[in-house]
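U., I forgot to send this yesterday:
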Amino acid sequence: MEKVGFETRLRSLLMEYVSTTNTRTMTPVTKHILQLLMFLYGEESFRETGGFSYSKNKNVADLQKKYVLYGYLLMEALKKNTITETDLTTLQRMWGQHLLSLVNSEMVKTAEKYERILHDSGETVFNIKRFQRHLEIMKTSDPNAEDRTKSKSHVTKLGVGPFCFRRPRFLERLTMSLKNKFGRGDPKDFLMLKFQDIQ
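Result:
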């Protein structure tokens, strides 16, 4: 199996999808997209030199490579609109094996954090949106980034470093709650404008 080849292609398809797709239209793959982002870009999975860190344990590394391969196949199917329930079930099962490998590698807190985030649909969407904003900031801060991200092939290379996936803080939870109740808008306006007519 071409570990680097499939990983590069998966990153390319994933970045393209996340950069161009609204979270509302990601259903029913929202959790699977976040799982792939956590797997590839979670700060706990990065080597000091950058890039995804495969396990030194051969069995775990083989599982990680298979997850990359199936993740790539899922993104290809998603792109062609040929995704099936079996695809989602298979990838979900492999994610469970990845979490188990984290537990066995004494990364219990990381596994528990990921599961808590994924258990709550609001927190799942929250983290995808944070990652999307992170990508936008990267593009804005480097005007030539878009030109450099594309190689001569169809593979897109984005120098995205490790990312901290986390649960929302109190004010972020409050904002999410207000948005769910009153709709979209600038979070700063909710308390000032949504209730200004109430005397």
